[in-house]
Amino acid sequence: MRRITASVTGKVQGVGYRYYITDCACEVGVTGYAKNLPDGSVEVVAEGIESDLEEFILELKADEEPFIAVENIAVAWENPTGEYDDFCIIL
Q1: What pTM was computed for the model?
Q2: What pLDDT digit, counting tens, does each position of 12-68 carry?
Q3: Which of 3, 18, 72, 79 does the annotation list as catalytic?
Q4: Can you give the residue range of the structural domain that contains 69?
Q5: How far apart are CA 15 and CA 69, in angstroms?
Q6: In CATH, what number is assigned to the domain containing residue 64?
């Protein structure tokens, strides 16, 4: 098990990005959260098997989503805490 904390920038607020990421997390099988930050970025924290997290990071790009425009994803790998039971949106 591993954990990532990602900062995603671009056109990622007000376009359904957090909902898209939640669907991706459920499909891949990782837990954690997505949260809008005041600077216009989205913070994504996820825990799971490293190969699942690598797949999830690819999904963070949202290449096929017409209203979302990801410019940059900064990912930090960490040790998991096991604190999440599912993936949710933090308001």
Answers
A1: 0.96
A2: 999 999 999 999 999 999 999 999 999 999 999 999 999 999 999 999 999 999 999
A3: 18
A4: 2-90
A5: 9
A6: 3.30.70.100
The tally of domains found in the chain comes to 1
**How many angstroms separate the first and last alpha carbons of the chain?**
26
Which entry of 2, 36, 72, 79 is annotated as an active-site residue? 36
Strand order in the sheet with 69-78: 69-78, 2-11, 42-48, 31-36, 87-90
CA dihedral sign of residues 15, 64, 72, 53: positive
Rounded to 5°, the CA angle 63-30-2 comes to 105
Q: Is the dihedral of CA 19, 58, 71, 41 positive or negative?
A: positive
Look up 79 and say whether it is catalytic. no
Burial of 14 (0-12, 13-18, 19+ CB in 10 A): exposed
2 belongs to the catalytic site: no
